[in-house]
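Deliverable D5.2: sample structural annotation.
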Amino acid sequence: MDEEAETVGGVRGLDGSAGDVDYRSIGSGYSSFRRPDPRIAQFVADALGDARRVINVGAGSGSYESVAPAVTAVEPSESMRAQRAACLPRAVNAVAESLPFDDGQFDGAMTLFSVHQWSDVEAGLREMRRVTRGPVVVLTCDPELVRNFWLYEYAPEVLDTEARRYPSIDALAASLGAVVDVRSVPIPLDCTDGFNEAYYGRPEMLLDPAARQACSAWSFVDDGVRERFTTRLRDDLDSGAWDDCFGHLRRQAFYEGSLVIVRATPQEDEEHHHGRT
């Protein structure tokens, strides 16, 4: 077994998954439904600024790795590593809480749709800060806002699960320290990255079990919840009830929901930046 295939730190699931989701069972179609959206990618690129060497923690199948010139991917799940495109570098088999890199080795760091699955978020963010001398960028959802989405009327158990799993923005900021900036990320109507809110104006997509499977929160509810959701949403779409309440979303170019970018920079980096400007 080579160095990149060795397990580094943390308690692993059946396929090496380090958090609360077993991607051996739900990750098979992830790369088909969770394709990077260029407009969200631009937010990530802007947050990274001029960072060249970037670590991507919880890298999954490699979405958004085009945002930096050189990316080192870290992914504990064997299933997700297997879905990485051949053109991407191999992912290091390690967990956020124990990164096998030197202090300040990277210009920037990012973790996208991942922190809510870590076993110890505070430790993972401390590690990202340790190995990074520039910005640490976290794309996540604000748990205070996830229940505002129309899905809550059809499957409250799913969004209650998300609200419990996502760390609060205050907790993220406290763990990252230094200078922290939080920005809402508008979600485009034709978003190609299929998390729940990406379908705000395309509710029919969530009738597809494969689309739901690509959103990890659905793996925490039972078949009864999924069946009830499917029946009720299909009935409301057929009758026009969904469109009576939410049909305006089909024509709304962007949706500002719970998706946010948290960007943390060292104090001295921020002072240097202001000094140049």
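Annotation notes: The beta strands are 53-57, 70-74, 108-112, 136-141, 179-184, 187-188, 254-255, 259-265. The CA atoms of residues 62 and 88 lie 7 Å apart.
The annotation will be released with the project's public dataset once the embargo ends.
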